């Protein structure tokens, strides 16, 4: 959504302009987490190959955690007097990234693509953390906790893409398709 709707109220200690900016940051992360948990489930359903069961089972706890992040973000928006937007149409209209590009593919191909997905999500979380330093430390704390978990999940993905020297097969990839090709 491009416009910022008026808040019904906000929490004590935050003025309306600050709260509106915090709500916008929360909404952007809500959109990212909604997209991410759906993407992770898509990968869960579409991985094939010799490492299928390991990756298939690794992804479900990530899906559950990220879905929980989305709920926490939406509830924080409501706490600040905003109205969380959780419909598919609102997500598609607001997102600034392309839809996940990989269908049925090997575990390595999906993990390569997920490496880039996680890079994007984590980068925008860290940008939000920096901005929240001057806006709302409570929301910043939520972003920090979620980023810690996302970075852990990213490590789980990258461990499958790393050689014994620490080099990632996806190094230098600029798109999910390129990363999938490089990892495959």
TrEMBL record:
Q: Which GO terms describe its molecular function?
A: DNA binding; ferric iron binding; ferroxidase activity
Domain of life per record: Bacteria
Q: Does the keyword DNA-binding apply?
A: yes
Keywords (A to Z) from UniProt: DNA-binding, Oxidoreductase
Enzyme group, top EC level? oxidoreductase
List, for all copies, the residue spans of the domain called Ferritin/DPS: 24-163
Cytoplasm recorded as keyword: no
**Enzyme Commission code(s) on record:** 1.16.3.1
Query: By its UniProt entry, which InterPro entries does this protein fall under?
Result: DPS_DNA-bd (IPR002177), DPS_DNA-bd_CS (IPR023188), Ferritin-like (IPR012347), Ferritin-like_SF (IPR009078), Ferritin_DPS_dom (IPR008331)
The UniProt similarity line reads:
Belongs to the Dps family.
Name under which the protein is recorded: DNA starvation/stationary phase protection protein
Look up and give the organism this protein is from: Nocardioides simplex
């Amino acid at each position: 959504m491009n416009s910022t709707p008026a808040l019904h109220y906000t929490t004590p200690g935050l003025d309306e302009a600050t709260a509106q900016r915090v709500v916008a940051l929360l909404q952007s992360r809500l959109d990212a987490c909604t997209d991410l948990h759906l993407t992770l489930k898509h990968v869960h359903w579409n991985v094939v190959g010799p490492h299928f069961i390991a990756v298939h089972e690794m992804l479900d706890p990530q899906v559950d955690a990220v879905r929980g992040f989305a709920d926490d973000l939406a509830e924080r928006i409501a706490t600040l007097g905003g109205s969380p937007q959780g419909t598919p149409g609102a997500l598609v209209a607001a997102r600034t990234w392309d839809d996940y590009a990989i269908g049925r593919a090997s575990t390595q191909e999906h993990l390569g693509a997920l490496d880039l997905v996680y890079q994007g999500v984590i980068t925008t979380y860290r940008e939000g953390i920096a901005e929240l330093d001057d806006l709302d430390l409570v929301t910043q704390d939520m972003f920090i906790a979620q980023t810690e978990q996302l970075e852990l999940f990213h490590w789980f993905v990258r461990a499958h893409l790393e050689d014994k020297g620490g080099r990632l097969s996806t190094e230098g990839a600029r798109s999910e398709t390129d990363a999938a090709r490089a990892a495959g």
